[in-house]
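>> received
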Amino acid sequence: EWRDYALEFGREAAVFSILRGTAEQPLYRITKTPELARRQQQFAVVAQGGLILKRGNDLAQVLRVLAKKPRLARG
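>> returned
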């Protein structure tokens, strides 16, 4: 589903955007705002509509929200 990405570096934050195609809006944005590290919210995963899916100070924990959840198969 993800075919492209973009990196953006600013004074206040760094953003990694996950794109479906090169000319589309990002599906997800992973932001790092060092200024928020004292509040335990340095990293954030933001959905396409601006909804914050997960915040935290541990990148691995925050990225788990993007992992596909296993589906139960009926047998």
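>> The chain is about 5% helix and 40% strand.
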